[in-house]
Design goal:
Chain lengths: ~200, ~180
């Protein structure tokens, strides 16, 4: 009798501990899981309606650009890399869209997630005839935007700095244009404090 | 009862490893196949091969990608002075066009691919067991996105035998350092 009670208690304890260990390890692997889930909608990425996390990054000629300084404009924040073929496909579209909507207040900001150096990025941007701002990305900014496991990833920001739409992976030019129109249609609230 | 306690101990010992393996394999888009222990006599060489599997839905650049911007798949080794690896042979990539750009064909690996090499034991190599660490650097994409370059670590055992027929002296296993950096 004593043995069977002990047996049952041990089983209960074992199951409880297994469940706890599972929880612990799933927490430990959070960064990795979030990264792989980027394309199922990373939970840490700013959601629609949220203020886009502010950052300051350098342009290819070394100037600082702070995202919140672009308040009042519709911003397409496009994360890309030179090794990303789908990113290369949408770059000519972005060039055209920047030309088309610049006067209405569109500011496309390409954030290069390469670790191959600024010259490689600059040469590539030149080859692709990029006419919009290109910033050199960082891991810190990637984490602010949900890990950016997959590229391209775009955030469409309204004039108030809030996320209007997102595009994970390559989407059609018309999808990008529709999201840009939504961003341009927002009204600016330039005195809103940036999310940090 | 003792049998049960042993079973319980085994479950506890293996659970963290299993969970860790699951959480890390969830983000790996390439898996390395097992490599059986390589036997080589000192002063001679033996062919070695490494089998990799690219998960369904993904592709990685071949060792010779179609454009210079693309990151090639490269297998690198951390070897002790006793061993050298040479004649690395990567398979040719399949030339495939993807939905994101049907006009361009990219040289890629998908499914299984094998990298071959020749493992050479130096004439002055110390006989005995070694654990060799290697790393596959790859950059994966699917049909509409690309993922940052990754390094897949792997390890395999090598047993260097002395040239003659005498049994090798028992020596502790030596482990090559893990590869770090880019």
């Amino acid at each position: 009798m004593k043995r069977s009670v002990l047996f049952i208690v041990l089983i209960v304890v074992a199951i409880t501990l297994l469940l706890f260990s599972g929880k612990y390890f799933s927490k430990g692997g959070k960064a990795a899981n979030v990264a792989s889930a980027a394309f199922q909608g990373a939970s840490d990425a700013p959601a629609k309606g949220a203020l886009a996390p502010d950052f300051t990054l350098k342009t290819l000629d070394g100037k600082d650009v702070q995202l919140s300084s672009l308040r009042g404009k519709a911003v397409l924040l496009n994360f890309w890399a030179t090794w990303c073929e789908p990113c290369k496909i949408e770059m000519p579209w972005l060039v055209d869209l920047q030309k088309k909507y610049r006067m209405q207040g569109l500011e496309i900001v390409g954030v290069a997630m390469d670790d191959s150096g600024e010259k490689t990025i600059a040469d590539f941007a030149h080859k692709m005839q990029v006419n919009y701002t290109v910033l050199v990305g960082s891991e810190k900014v990637a984490q602010m935007y949900g890990g950016l496991d997959g590229l391209p990833t775009s955030f469409f920001l309204g004039r108030d700095g809030k996320v209007v739409d997102t595009a994970l992976g390559l989407v059609s030019e018309s999808t990008i244009e529709d999201a840009i129109k939504k961003s341009l249609a927002t009204s600016g609230a330039t005195n809103t404090a940036a999310a940090r | 009862m003792r049998r049960f306690l042993r079973l319980l101990a085994f479950i506890f010992a293996s659970t963290p490893a299993l969970l860790l393996a699951q959480s890390s394999s969830a983000i790996e888009r390439v898996i390395a196949g097992p490599v059986s222990t390589v036997m080589v006599h000192k002063g001679s060489s033996t062919p070695v091969q490494f089998i990799f599997h690219v998960k369904p839905g993904y592709h990685i650049n071949s060792n010779k990608p179609s454009t210079p911007e693309l990151i090639p798949t490269v297998l690198s080794f951390s070897l002790p002075e006793d061993l050298v690896i040479g004649r690395m042979k990567y398979p040719a990539g399949a030339l495939i066009s993807f939905p994101f750009d049907p006009s361009q064909k990219l040289s890629v690996y998908s499914g299984d691919f094998t990298v071959k090499g020749l493992l050479i034991a130096q004439p002055k190599a110390n006989p005995g067991p070694f654990t060799i660490h290697a790393e596959l650097r790859y950059q994966a994409c699917d049909n509409n996105a690309c993922y940052p370059p990754k390094k897949l670590p792997l390890a395999f055992n090598v047993n260097i035998r002395s040239g003659g027929h005498s049994a090798p002296k028992a020596r502790p296993n030596r482990t090559s350092p893990h590869i770090h950096g880019n």
